[in-house]
Amino acid sequence: MTLSIMKAAGLAAATTLLGACSIGSYGGLSVGSAGYYDDGYYDDGYYGWYDDYYYPGTGYYVYDPNRTAYRWNARQQRYWMARRAAIRDQRRIRANWNRWERREARREYRRDARRDARREYRREYRRDARQEARREARQVARQQARQRARQQARQEARREARREAIRDARREARMDNRRDARRDARREDRRERRRERRRERDD
Length: 203
Hints:
67% helix
């Protein structure tokens, strides 16, 4: 009997407080949905996030992540009234935006982390792209240098071959000329000796 009277008194107090409360003030941001044991305290479960809407603990409005106020629906009303009725000290109930602030802080942290990760990824991508471009440029330059060196070596080899051929041709020509000169000299010497013999016979 005593327990039933206490429950009835608690519900009456909760109803009275709900009717007397105003919407409350906005305050910052938070993460997760509130529970009876949020933050380790049973009495902190009357405010927080539920079904992606924030209830500050007073009034009959809930707020979406953009801080737009909506009058709570029947399901949200039952959920939050049950939590308020479970609070041991009803005098502690007041508008509380701490979980909103924590959720927004974590959201901002994740947003900053993702932004930093994307920035780092782009930085590394650009650095890798520059390194790859320089590596490819050096590789192309080395290939072109080797090709020029081979081309110059072939050209030099052809020039040297032509010079050697010309030297050989001149050498052969000089040798032929000397042979012809010696042959002509011997022929002329033989003629001269024959003329000498004929003169001797004629004498």
